[in-house]
Amino acid sequence: MADSEVLSIRLPRKLKAKLEKLAKLSGRSKSWHAAEALDAYVDYQMPIVKSIIEARDNARNGGRTYTLEEVKARTSKIIERAQAKQAQK
Question: Can you give the pTM of this predicted structure?
């Protein structure tokens, strides 16, 4: 823990109680569980936020943009191909 810093946050009572129960059951500290959860959340969110910023900048700079209908159509095709591939297994 030498390479750590303190972060104070407010939690809803129910979440704090669940965290305390998890810590007690697991034998790990509340801080350990909170740090693990935040690490996973940041890893999940970072590429999403970066993609949004990149797309926004691309649109502002005159790059290709897509309508919602185009995105839905393309996404549907990807899903259909994945489902067909899965059904072949």
Answer: 0.69
